[in-house]
Structure formats: C-alpha cells, structure tokens
Specification:
This protein is an alpha+beta fold and 332 residues long. It contains ten helices and 13 strands. Bound molecules: N-hydroxy-L-asparagine (SD4).
Length: 332
C-alpha cells in the first residue's frame, strides 16, 4: 500500500455523503412508512474499515447484502486480511516481535453487547474468528498466549506457521540494526478495524493485528482491548482505532467515541474529539500516527487521524468507496 501518495483530506465531503437517507432515525423512517405505505428504507448494509482494505470491506458489504448479520459479515471481512500474506500487520505474514515470533491480537463485539478477545496468540491465522469463539464458547472475554492457542485447537483451528518467506527476510534485515524502539511511523500501520451495520440496524465490530513490527516480546496494543481498538454499543454506534496502540489505550479511544456519539456528537465530530484528546497530552506528535473510524445507528460515518495518510473504506448501497480522512497535523 502506498499511503504516502494519498490525496488531500476530504472528510467533510465524506461525512456529508455518509448521511444520505440514513439521516432519519430508524423509528422516524418507520413512522413515515406507516403513513405513506412506501417500502421501508433498509437501515443498513454498510461496512467500514480502517485503511484501504478494499477486498475485505467489500467482502463484508456483500455478505450483508446477501443477508448475513453484522457479526458474521464483520468476521468474513477481517478474515480476508488475516489470510492476506502481503499484509505485514495482520494475521499470517504479519511482522514478528524482536525475538522472531509472530503474535496476533484480535477482538470482536456483537450487537447484543457481548465481547471476545485474544492476545499474543501464535500459530493461528484467523484470530478474530477465535475471539468470537472465546465470546460464544467460554464464560470469558479474553484469552492470552498459549491458553488461547490451546483453546483454538479444541475449536478445530489448525496450527500454521505465520512467518512467510518475505516476513522472515524482513526480520533478518531488521536484525542487522536491531533498532530498540519499534518503528511507529505511518508506513508501519495496516491493522484492520471494521464495523458493520446490517439490514436489521444491528452493529458489530472486529479488530485484528500482529501489532507493531519487532515489538517487545509480550507487548499488546490497543487492538484486542475492548474500548480501545474497538467498541460497539448497539444503541449508539461503533468505533475502531489504528495506529500507535499505546496512545489509543491511554484514552480508551473507541469507547470514548461511542460515548461522545451517545451524547450527541456525529461520528465525525467524535473521531476528531478523540484524536484531540491525544494531541492535548502526548509528546512528539509528529513521530506517530493514530486514526479512528466510527458509525452510528443512523448509518452516518466518520474518520479522523493525527497525521495525513489515513483512509477508510466504506461500503454503502452496493458501492465500495475509499475515503481519505481529515487529519490534525498540517505539514508544509
Ligand atoms: C497496535 N494499533 O498494536 C496497533 C497497530 C496498528 O496498523 O494499528 N497498526 O498498536
């Protein structure tokens, strides 16, 4: 992906386009339909995701159109990137930690408020699916490391070597310098966070990553942390984050966005407000990236990032569109 080549931010236009027929609340639509007896406008079949993951987002969008519910569709969508060997920040082919171990993090949230997560899992590609299993098949929300891996085998997941030839080569290259600090510039980010709104108006979300390349062994970022990398409240909406997980976690960014939407902000305003919380307290802003996407019950969407270069995919009315995000740091 060449995010450096992104066009100028166009978020305002994106937000305006995102409102469309969904600007009317579902109840309002229903009342109108009762009066006029017109066929009801479907409240959903919208998928959004972080970065330019066109195929993953389209997969989710088509799944919704084919009648799948929000949770099934979001898992189908993010699985595409987990299986994409070229994505070096998610699933198989993801960059290893400093010791050469590929460890994955993921979480899911269902419309009924349920949540599941796995952290620091080795040898399993579809960790978002595994997080769903934790949610549905155990009394717990999160399983870590070997426990999560062993649980995966009981659920029929197969053991896979997540290191590819390309990631092995890149790791060998990295070992030459062994830079202590993980690289945290924007080229390093490709985590997929996805939110789906189905035809019943239900919202689900998933977030999956291999985390920062060459991270410290045992390091876990925001992506699998409910409220940080992802949050869904089916009464309000959902949000997902990407970028330097440490900064997102300090603000519980996705939960913050959903709560701001609950209190009346649009998804766009809420994403901006969450980034600005980090701007207020974080140091060396130009050294890292954070970005958020959000959707509300009416199907309005928003996105915002700290630095230029972030985009989200949006599938709506059968069309998958890339939307460049507005950003805070303006550089000449
Ligand atoms: C993390 N937030 O582990 C993730 C990294 C990321 O695109 O988003 N990469 O901190």
């Amino acid at each position: 992906m060449k995010r450096r080549t992104f066009l100028k931010s166009t978020t305002q236009a994106g937000v305006a386009a995102g409102i469309g027929v969904f600007a009317i609340g579902c109840n309002e639509t229903q009342k109108n339909d009762e009066k006029t007896k017109k066929p009801m406008v479907k409240p959903g079949e919208i998928a959004i995701c972080t970065w330019g993951f066109s195929k993953a987002n389209e997969t989710a969008g088509l799944a919704l159109q084919n009648g799948k519910n929000a949770l099934d569709a979001v898992i189908d969508g993010v699985s595409v990137e987990e299986e994409n060997l070229k994505n070096t920040t998610v699933g198989k082919g993801g960059a290893p930690d400093r010791e050469g171990r590929v460890t994955l993090d993921a979480c899911v949230m269902a419309p009924n408020g349920n949540a599941g997560a796995v952290v620091c899992v080795e040898n399993i590609t579809n960790v978002a699916r595994l997080a769903r299993k934790v949610m549905e098949e155990t009394p717990h929300v999160m399983l870590a490391g070997e426990g999560a891996e062993q649980f995966a085998y009981t659920q029929g997941f197969k053991k896979e070597n997540l290191m590819t030839e390309a990631s092995q080569e890149a790791y060998q290259e990295w070992l030459k310098e062994k830079e202590y600090k993980p690289i945290i510039n924007i080229e390093n980010h490709d985590t997929i966070g996805m939110l789906t709104l189905d035809k019943n108006g239900d919202i689900a979300g998933a977030c999956t990553t291999s985390g920062l390349a060459y991270k410290m062994m045992g390091r876990v970022g925001d992506s699998p942390i409910i409220g940080s990398g992802l949050y869904v409240d089916n009464e309000v909406g959902g949000a997902a984050g990407t970028g330097l997980g440490e900064e997102i976690m300090k603000k519980v960014g996705s939960f913050l966005i959903v709560e701001l939407m609950r209190n009346g902000m649009s998804p766009q305003q809420a994403c901006e407000a969450a980034v600005m919380r980090t701007v207020k307290t974080a140091k060396n802003l130009s050294d890292f990236q954070i970005a958020y996407i959000a959707i509300n019950k009416a199907g309005e969407t928003g996105s915002f990032s700290l630095q230029q270069g972030f985009a989200m995919m949006e599938y709506r009315n059968g069309t998958n569109t890339r939307k460049e995000a507005a950003f805070h740091l303006k550089t000449e």
